[in-house]
Amino acid sequence: MSVRAHWRLPPAVLLAALAAACGLKAPVREFHWKAMGTECVFRAAGADAARIAEVSEAARSEVARVEGRLSLFDPASDVSRLNSAPRGEWLEVSADAESVLKTALEVAARSGGAFDPTVAPLMQVWGFRNPGRTNEPPASELAEAMCSVGYAGVRLDGAGVSLDLDRGSLDLGGVAKGYGVDAAFERIAAMGGTDYMVDIGGNMRCAGRGMRPGGWVVGVRNPFDRDDVLGTVVLTGGEAVATSGNYERFVVLSGVRYAHIIDPRTGRPVRGMAGVTVLAPSACLADALSTALFVAGPEEGGKIIASFGGCEALFVRDELPMAVLATPGFAARFRPRGGLRLNITVLDQQPGPTAN
Ligand code: FAD
Ligand code: MG
């Protein structure tokens, strides 16, 4: 972990870096570390360097604690214990696992299964967890994996969790980074933090105003050029933002690139979307919704997100010239980067015939 004097573009989809160009008052310090298979950043504004170092350490340890509970890659985590328990058996799990599962199941239900935390067998069959695969899985393997997927098989009550899935298992990769952001965010708030941002691989939540009156300025990355941003939004009052994209995690099978987000309804990796960015009151919800809307696409996704209070979305289709669509609330807050000609289609979120 280190303090950086300069802003740089993190691999994350969204950047806070643009604030540097906006006339700072208090210095902003930045701490970087790796967790959850990605880069994490804690940023805080203020003059007391020792205090900021202390709270950044608290953020780091909170993320590590959550990772220990929710990682698919840690055999002692709640997720791994559930995945290896006999099907139907009830297990006591941490409050973290219960809370993240609650959000995951709610988004699964309200997205009509576009988001599904039991997508693990499909991730496996497409080679995302199994690097030996070189071509598309045969239909029989796909059909078998599909039989093991279904969020309705996850049962949750106050006493524990049980997986009632035929050979199925959990993968919280689409929601748990956001939960980790919320956990760190709340820990720092409890320590009296006022101006800070927690960022786990582009899942961000901000308190206070950062370096500018008005809030933290975050950039929405151009999915076609990792060094470019499409524009900016200002986050205020504990808001969160998350992006799901097709450009950072993928496999190549028989020469075709498949991104890591799978439509559980077809069993196939999603085609046609390059990136989806979601603003939400919590990072866990922003994370789950960005994955759900990446699967659902703008027309269905615009309607799904309308049922979640305080949430907005921006969609970029996987085509050039770039096709960008946004909910009315996102479009109103989004400032395209100077010099970029973006034609943004504003989605009609009313029930009934879809926009575009
Ligand atoms: P998002 O859009 O937020 O999520 C996509 C991910 O969600 C997919 O990778 C898959 O895991 C899952 N998913 C796919 N389709 C769906 C769907 N329809 N509904 C619901 N979920 C879906 N990576 C490593 O390489 N090594 C690690 O040790 C490692 N540890 C991790 C520990 C934790 C606690 C977490 C949360 C992630 C970890 N990861 C690790 C990364 C993880 O494997 C995913 O690649 C990552 O979470 C994807 O996040 P994203 O923001 O890129 O995409
Ligand atoms: Mg997500």
| CATH fold label of one domain | T-fold
Uncertain segments: 1-24
Strand content: 25-35%
Q: Which term fits the overall shape?
A: globular
Strand order, largest beta sheet: 1-3-4-7-8-11-16-17-18-20
The CA-CA distance between the termini, in Å, is: 46 Å
Helical content (DSSP H or I, runs of 4+):
25-40%
Tally of DSSP helical segments = 8
Counting DSSP E segments of at least 2 residues, the number of strands comes to 20
Based on CA atoms alone, the radius of gyration comes out at 20 Å
Can you tell me about this structure?
Helix 1 runs antiparallel to helix 6, helix 3 runs parallel beside helix 7 (283-306) and helix 6 packs across helix 7. The protein has eight helices and 20 strands. The model is unreliable at 1-24 (pLDDT under 50). The protein has a domain at 73-163: ApbE-like superfamily (T-fold), CATH 1.10.3980. Helices cover 29% and strands 26% of the residues. By secondary structure, it is α+β, with helices and mostly antiparallel strands. The protein has a ten-stranded mixed beta sheet with strand order 1-3-4-7-8-11-16-17-18-20. Strands 2-9-10-19 form a four-stranded antiparallel beta sheet. A two-stranded antiparallel sheet has the order 5-6. Strand 7 and strand 8 form a beta hairpin. The protein has helices at residues 49-70, 78-84, 95-110, 120-125, 139-147, 176-190, 283-306, 328-333; strands at 2-3, 14-15, 28-35, 38-45, 154-157, 160-163, 196-200, 203-207, 216-221, 229-235, 240-245, 250-253, 256-259, 262-263, 268-269, 273-280, 312-317, 324-326, 335-336, 344-346. Residues 174-175, 242, 244, 287-288, 290-291 line the site of magnesium ion.
